[in-house]
Structures are given as structure tokens and as C-alpha cells.
Structures
1.
Amino acid sequence: MFGPLTSKPGSSQANKTGSWRMGKKPKFLQKNCIACKMCILVCPENCVLGGEKNTYHCDYVYCKGCGLCAEICPKADIMMIEEGEQ
């Protein structure tokens, strides 16, 4: 009988994955946020930070630009923008 295969956790904090972002990045509008934390739950890099209503933002050092946070936001308070935009 085999159990689940697991490996030692990687050093994701040392791997700054934002350097190869896909050309877009999330912009947290901080207007209609209801603090549901869905963006935090769905982020594969755990780079969405914050904790109170309208205070969420992204750590672009680790963000890959996948857009999952913007896709899942029930209030459309996160939009994907081009890399050079603010």
C-alpha cells in the first residue's frame, strides 16, 4: 500500500517569480472590496497581502500575473492592467 507522496517544502520566498510575469498584473482598486479574502485563497503564489476591507494589494515581486484574483473577485474590484501601467 502506498501513501501520499510528499516532498520537502521549497524555498518559494527566495524565488522571486514576479520577474517572469505574463505581461499583465493585478491592480487592486480598493473601492468595492468586501474583504471576502477569495483573492488570497486563490493566489498560487500567496502574494496578495492585506487584511481589512479595501486594504488588499499584491506583492509584485512574487506575482506571476495569472489573473486568478481578478477572475474570482465577486465585486470586480481587481483588474488586470498592462505591466507598464500604474
Note: The longest helix spans residues 38-42.
2.
Amino acid sequence: MGGADAASFRLERRVAGFVAREDVLRSGEHLLLMLSGGADSMALLALLPSVDARLGLGLRLCALHVDYRARGADSDRDREIVARACETAHVPLQVVRLRQRLSGAGFQARARTLRYERAAELAAAFGRGVVVTAHNRDDQAETVLYRLTKYASPRGLTGMRPRERQLARPLLCLGAAEIREYCRARGIEYGEDVTNARPVYARNALRLQVLPVLARLNPRVAETLADTAAMAAAEADVLAAATASAASRVARPLTPGDLAALDIAALTAEAPALRALVLHEAARAALGGEALVERRVVEALLALCARRDDAGRVSVGRGLEAARASGVLRLRRREPAHICEAVSLDGAALAAAEGEGVTLAFCGRAFRARLLGGSMLERDPARAFVGLSAAPHRVTLRHARRGERFAPLGLCGETTVARFLAGARAPAPARARALVLAVDDAVAWVGYADAGAARRGRVAQDFRVRESSRCTLLVFEEDT
């Protein structure tokens, strides 16, 4: 056996060992190979039959090539290379050729999205359950550096895994240079993408400018980074198990509309790092499982859990929010802003109506306002009894304004309406519809629906009914 043949034989054996050790490909699987026409993908097409024969997996192959029409004659060349190789290997090929040339800002990200969308569609249509890419060890090193540069998360160290559900990467054990040498030794035709030689994209810059500098410190830097990713992935699995266990300890029953519900006291009892991981995973699951959860979102959720008052909400992204109430943090879809036009009544008109009162329509409900002489009070939490020293100039029904404050009767000092509602255990969805009765622009009474949908309210300290009150403003919902 010649030297080139022996080296190729050893490389094929390494790939087979890697596939078996990492459980990259499994017996009887139907594979969809994503072939670009470059050295890596053409080596993948050539290597898989050898791997299959060595491991006896009984794999079935088909391939996908996406022609972005971005490089003129080179795009045509790559398409033809893939077609010839697949015909020789008797591997069915599907070619997707874009009608319009794909170019412009974010080309690589858009091309990747398109590539994987087409692969998912084809895999579903033809029953090819596993998509196989030709990512190599150098790609892994670039991925680790890119994620560490862009995102403040140790998860960036995990890079790409050899097998992620229905996505397989059997060449992660090989470097780019040895793949090209394998192609040369085996006479495998492939195309060179000239754009890879220009640092116009982030990954190109890492490969062409950053990694060569790091290689002066460590000639095997790509291998070191890939090994780091493998170890980090194994440790991440341990953390994932600990996070899942903690999540089960802090989980609360879901109410209608909830995507997640966490007991804040139980969550606070967990170690800080584990607390952050639980919140990260809860947010990621709510967003769809594959979403990138930014560090600022986790920090905002941690701050929300650490608040002394049982209130507040933060945006999670994609139309979702987290709100706390009754000691529980709930992730749910943010409801459209509830906006109702305020309704005001002139004090003179109210006084002229005497005991009959005046009807006000607000928030789809009918209210009656009466101005009664002297001090009058009934124990009815659904009705507003407001003590006044003189007839008001204006009475207004509206919803609470952001940051609005008042001093609820029976509590010490002022608070925001939002914190009062949270402390009264008003459900989060009901808080936007809470009723504010304002007298001459001052909050006199706040009404809300409790967890049982019963109407309740609290008068402001300065507007309580006293024996000295000259008149009493009574506001209530009609037919209640």
C-alpha cells in the first residue's frame, strides 16, 4: 500500500471511529447530504460509503445542492461538480437553483437559513430524517471564537456538536488541510470558493487573520479549540441535567396563557448560577427552544425576581413577557396594549343631577356617579365611596398611567398603582384594566378584579369618608 493510500486509509478509519464513538450516524438511517461542491462536502460524499462499510450501518444517501447564483461561472462549476460526483456514487441529487441572485448584507446568514430550510423540506418530503453537513475541526474553532467574541456566555465554548437531534457532522474530527490532502490523494474533484480568501465576512476574518496569529502561540490552536468545545459540551450536559432538576423544583402549575410559571421563593433558594440557568432555559423554551437568549434578558429576569415588591414585568422578546405576582414569575405572550379613552364629568353637572346621578360609559361598562350630601359609607368593596370637603370640579374614570402613585387607605405612605395591584394579588392580565377614579386629577380610588374575578377597590387615604366630609362621591357599576 502506497504512502498516500495508507494515509487515506488511516483518515477513513479515524472518521469511522469518530462516528461510532460519538454516535454521529445510526444504523439504517436515511441521510440527506448538504453538498456545496467544496473540498469538505465532496470529501464527505466520498467518505460516507467507507464509514458505512466499516461500521455496517446500512445507510441510505441522497444529496442537496443549493445554487445561490452568487458567483457566476463558479456557481455553475460547483453545481456541475456535485452533479458528476453524485452520479458516479449513485446518490440521488436534488438541486435548488434560486430564481434571483442572492446577495447583499447578511448574505451568509440568509444563505444558511435558506439552505437549512430547503434541507428540512426535502428531508420531510423524501423521508430523509437526518441532515448531514461537512463541518470540520477548523470550522469548529471558528465557531468557538465567533461565539465567544459575540456573546457573553460559556455556552459559546460548546461550539457545534457531532450530533444534534437530526443534524449530523461526521467530519468534525478532521482539519481542513488534511481533508484537502485526502481529496488530492483520492483524486476527488472540488471547487474553490474565491470569496473564502477575502476577509469580508466575520468567519473569513477569523480564519484568515485571527487564527494565524493565535497559531504563533500554539500551532495546534484549531485542534485545541475543538477539544475545548468537546469538553465544554460534555460539561454542558451535566449542567443541563442540574438545570432540569432545579427547574422541576421551582415549577408551578400553569394557568391559561402561561408558557412557564416559576416559584420565586424556591428559585431564590437555588445557587445564583443555577438560578440564572433556570431562567435562561425557561426563556429559551418559551421563545421556541432554538432561540438565542441574550444575557440582558436573563439579567432583567433576575432583577425582576429580586424585587422587594411583588410586581413588575419585563420583555423577553418576540412578543413575550415575564410578569410576577403572588410570588410567581409567569412567562406568557404579551397582550396588546389595552387603551380606553378617559371619561370625565363636570362637577356642576354631577351636582345638578343630585341623587339621581349621571351615567358614564367606560371600558365597555356602564357606571353611575352620584354626589351625596354629608358623610355616607357602606361596606361594599365593589363601590367607590369618596369623601370630599367640597363639590368636585371634575370627576374622571380612566385606567392607571405608568408610574402613577397614590396612598391607599390602610397602607403606610404612597406606592405606585401597579405595586398596589400586585400586592392586592390582582391577576397580571387584569391590571391593565384596573379602574382609576380621579377627582380633580388626583387618584381617589382604584378598582380591580381579584383572582376570582370579584370587583374590589381601595380609596386613597386623603379621600376616605370622614364624619367631617361635606359630601360623598359614590361611583359604582350599574346592575351590580
Note: DSSP finds 14 helices and 21 strands in the chain.
3.
Amino acid sequence: MNTASVFLAKSTVKSGDLNHRCVINFNMGKYNATVPVGKQQFANLEAARNYAHSRKRDAISNLGHYLQQFEEKITARGATVIWAQDAEEARQAILSICREAACKTLVKSKSMVTEEIHLNDFLEKNGIESIETDLGEYIQQLDGEPPYHIVTPAMHKSKEDVARVFAEKLGTPPGLSPQELTQVARVKLREKYVQAEVGVTGANFLLADTGSICITENEGNGRLSNAWPKVHIAITGIEKVLPSINDLQVFWPLLATYGTGQRLTVYNSIISGPRQPGETDGPEQMYVILLDNGRTKLLADPRGREALYCIRCGSCLNACPVYKNIGGHTYDTTYSGPIGKVITPWLRSMHDYKHLSYASSLCGNCTEVCPVKIPLHELLLHNRHEAVARGESTLAERLGWKGWKAAMLSRALMNMAGGKQKSFVINNVFTAWTNGHAPLDFPKKSFSEMYRAGEV
């Protein structure tokens, strides 16, 4: 089966899963209750969003300049910058660093880019234990699942599901409370921090003017992952750059508010290299891997490049009616929801993933809630146009639209089929709608026929 067929099959199953819907609605409800409170910290929220959009537009429009500036600054403080064209180059670079450090255990804080390159599986195949230290990611790793959501990886699991996973994988007593489960994870993970030779993190932002990476998190695991091991590897997409450290005064509150409803995330770290002379903690070596992996293809598209403004807050997923019904795993991609539907065809393959751009109601709610004002629903339409322009549409689709155009341009052709014929075709021939809905019953007369007869 191709990716589109798999997506449709999984969507059909998941949309009818009432237990999944119950858990997601409960978790989304808590998010929807906290975000309006977080927004109250802004004297002028629209001004903040406009500023963020403008700064990301500047950063992406001048990406080469700002990345070069970032590299020069952080290299001057002893870090090593590695440019990775694709996932394989990134994986091999990390493996080389790990082998040089004689690494047997690696701790990793939450990073969607490491999910993008399938780092855990790769390291395991090469004899290196890679441990997720974010609690949600740790739960998913124990259960053998990828993250369900960009921000909250285990959003689809209830507290009973987590207790079951811990009992099965860690041998804990069944039915532990969330507090007890958290303490179990804390004890297990602290042991790994002590053992680890290498720590891997992502980066929420890259600061060009200071040559720094920024990590924002709520558990402290990001700080432990980069400070305790002797070697720190930060891997991030090239689009994460910001022109100035001063931009954080807007981006940090926006990310926190739209991501989790907080005024500010609990732990916000600015890291500008390995341990410096006279400092008492921090890694002895620091590497920053800047990953392309299809991003420059998106950058080259004057319209689509706006998707690179994304700060990975996850708000568009929480707002999307499609995501809330079919869940994160149905997409079978690293990035799900509206932003995933926009960027995945560029990062992976337009041929294999163009169907994602059609999995949308185009309600525009994703655009409405985006803190950096990315016009997501418009970019979904742009992707559809791009797929057709590249010749990715099927013969049946092209013939269908050709027939529709001819009919729309001719009132006589439109009136040839009455309500009875239209109802038969929709309910018995083109059954995509009626497969999941009640049959359609068209009026016997069209509006134009009723108008001519003086009936309206």
C-alpha cells in the first residue's frame, strides 16, 4: 500500500475510536483552558505576533548570513559546527563523535529533529544505549512508539495507560499515581545521567549575534543532558535561527503561551559553547549539527518558505479538527498536524506525501492560532497547486476537473442532470462522501430552474 492508502486506512480506524477521542478531548480541554490565561501577559498580543513574524521573515530571508554569523561566534568559544545535508550525514557525524568519546550510554532531551533522523534506532543498531529523558518521550520510548505530538509526546495516553506501560516495562506495581510514576522515572533517569558519556539536545532557537543555542523546557532534563556528560551534541534544523538575543523577550513568552499556556517555560537556557576557563560545570566538548534535510528546497520556494517561520509550539495541532479526530500517529510522519502537512511533502517527497495537504477542512483555525502568523491553510492550498504543477495528479483527477470546469462554464450542461441523477451518482458511484455520512438527497429542481419558474 502507498502512503496515501495507509493514511486513509489508519484515519478510518482512529476516527471511530471513542476512547482515543475521550482522552484527546480531555487533554485538549486543559490546554484550551490555560492558553487564554497565558495570553493575558501581553499588553498587545497582535503586536507581539507581528514582531515575531517580521523577525522570522528577516531570519529566513537572510538565512545564509545569520547562520554564518552564528557559526563564527560559537566557534570562537570552542564549539564545533557540523553542517549535515541529510539525515544520514547527521547520524554518521553523531556516531563518529560517540565513538571518539567511547560512548556506551547517551542521554537525550526532547528533540523533534532527532526523531526526524531516527537517531535512537540508529544508535541502538550501533551498540549505543540512547535514553529519552523527557518524561513524555521516555514513556513513548518504553512503549515502542514515536511521539504523538510536537510538544506533548504522550498526549494520547491516559494516566492508566502510563501506569500500564511502567508496570510492563519497568516492573512497577500496577495502578501507580502520576506522582509515583514521575518519581520512578526520576530515579531511573538520574542513574543514566551519571553513566552517560554523551548528551544530545535540540535547540529551540539559534542566536546569530551571540553564537548561542537556546533550550526551553519544563523538566530540567535538557540542562542535565548538556551539563553532566563530557560531550554535548546539539542538533537542530537550520531554520531555527534568530537575528538577535533581544528577540527572545518576545519569542520565549510566545512559545510558552501557545505551547502550554504558561507565561514562561520553567527552564530557559542560553548555551554559548563548552565549559570555559574558570567555569565549574558544563561539557568539555560541544558540537552543533545544523541539519538541512530538505529545508533548503522549501527555502527556495518564495511562497512555501513561510513554513520555516515555525517555532514548534504545537498550537496548530491543538486547533486542528482533523488532528483531533485521527491523532498524531496516523500521519506516519515526524511532524503531524497542519504544520506537518505543509512541510513534510518538501522535507520528504511531494509524490509520497502530497495527500497530507488534502487532509484538511481548510477552516483556517491553524492560521488563526499560529503565534508567528504563518498562513498555514493557504500553504496547504499552495502545496496542492505545487503537486499538480509537478505532474503528481492522476489521470482520473485531471479528467474529473476538466469535466467539472466544462460543466461550470455551461448552464445547459449543469442543468442536464436533475436532482434524482445527482443523488444516484453521489450515493452509488462517487461514494467517498457517503462512505462516512448519510446519503445525500438533492432537490428535484436546481435553483435556476426554480427561479425561472417563479418559485423563489
Note: The chain has three domains: 1-36+303-393, 41-293, 405-452.
4.
Amino acid sequence: MARIKLDLPVNFPFTTELRVRITDVNYGGHLGNDAMLGLLHEARVRFLEHHGLNEGNIDGLGLIMTDSALVYKSEAFAGETLAISIALADFNKYGCDFMYRITEKTSRREVAWAKTGMVFFDYAKRAIQKIPQPFRDLFSPDAAV
């Protein structure tokens, strides 16, 4: 079976911490896939808020997820605090990938690597749109510094 491979960036300019709740734990006694995506969503919202942005309205457009990938390195358990680091990569005409490195805060044990492909979306028109220039200027590696 082919395995998903993610190439993480070297630098992660943002990190937030989230606690694994008992409701995030599945029948295996560890953090579930669905809950991990929820934690990544919360971290992404915090990342955007840190930059004065709102996921539902960035220059009149929202974000919508086109794909996601999770590569687990170890289990995470209720009560643990996860440090979720975020970097942006692979910019294209319509969006980019949010890349995540998830570690357990105290031990620094790697829990997972992840990515969510995000594109800009006009919810009124129900259509994908080009990246707003202010977003590109703020985050794109080819933006003028």
C-alpha cells in the first residue's frame, strides 16, 4: 500500500497550543482522525486571527478546504497539550496549502504531520476565486518583502 508522504517546510512561523479533550478520543483510546481535523481547523483560525484575518471573509472571500492529509507519528491522549505549528506552502492561482507539525508540548514527541489544501471561495456565487492580492502580499514566498 502506498503511503502518503508530506514534505514539511523548514520554518513554521506560527504555533498555538490546544488541549486534547476527552471528546476528541475515539474507541482506540487516542485522538481520533475527525477530532484531529477539528483541532487543525481551530489552529488555522487562530493563525489567521493572529494576522488580523477571518476565515469567512478575507477581502470579501472565504476559504474552503479542497483536500487534507494526515500522517501520524504517534498517538495523542486526553489531557495532553498539542503544539500545532503552521506554515503556508504551494501557492497557486486560487489558494495554497496550510502545513502543520503537531507535537506534544511537554515531551516534544511528534504526533502528526498534516496539510489542508485551501482555496478562496465566493460563497454567494458558489465559485472558486483567485487569491486576494492582500493575502498573497502577506504570505506568498514570491511576494515583495
Note: Helices lie at 33-50, 133-139.
